[in-house]
């Protein structure tokens, strides 16, 4: 209770528009509260439907203390279960992904079907009621080819998220794509620092020469700030995409947890490549042009995404410790695109491989500075870091309510 009270007081006393106090980025006790009240309660982006295309295909993920398995059933439905055998608790699946006709515990071979039902327990089936020992389910939904799950006993309603983002994602046919490349790195920084760094491009011109070839660092063109619709480049891009039947305008959820929009690239670019030309000659769908810019999807607490005409990028963050965060990036292309024929892997991945490594160094230096007892919260730029302010306000408000302290701050609604 001491840590809960301390965090609640810190949230209530924080200065609006300033970064958080040191403990939010360093304290093991605050990290445990983040897991309990954010990562164990919110919907989390986990992976892609195209990674589990056939019955028996599975992927696994570790969320804090919870190992989880996501599997495609024989009825073609995607389900998630706690990756814990109901016999003596061993993990069922130790591989990151694979395919199995049934789920067999490697310890004592208790066996479950793909819907989680216990179907075999050697020399014990007469002594137990198999219906009482099925795998424990985890709430799971798929939208636009993206898989989300929630560890909460009573998850929040998923349908508002589906209604907002599905029309934007559906035209890209991502449930029929494939993962061309996946990269996982460990950033030695708190998960909130990883998210804060993503939510601004104040740092981009000095740190991301590759990304800035095609992606604007101007907040009025990419962050969704107030008055964005007055920017001629944005309005022209939205009108062009809408003429192709593609929803494009900025939308944000009532609680400001997720938002979607389309933004144009700069320098007449078609894709996030060093040349600006498409990375994949076979587009994701039958688009009349590759000049769709990027469809941005942000979802707190753990994902941001770029959906292009020729490929898509997903970014997933999961906290490991107060000062370590796992960042997984996946590049998706048309399911029939052939490496070496339809795309070159280096050309596809080099911009974000470089950007991710640059962001890793930025976050780690940020964390090193905050570890100093000399650190104190500093002011965010209202022009360039408005989206960071919005993220921190969302986090502070969510934590305050769940700690019983009411609302911590008045959230800002006019940033993306």
TrEMBL record:
One of its GO terms (molecular function) is iron ion binding. The keyword Oxidoreductase applies. Keywords: 2Fe-2S, Iron, Iron-sulfur, Metal-binding, Oxidoreductase. It holds the Pfam family Ring_hydroxyl_A. Its cofactor is Fe cation. Residues 43-149 form the Rieske domain. SUPFAM superfamilies: Bet v1-like, ISP domain. Signal peptide: none annotated. It comes from the Bacteria. This is Rieske (2Fe-2S) protein. It comes from Inquilinus limosus.
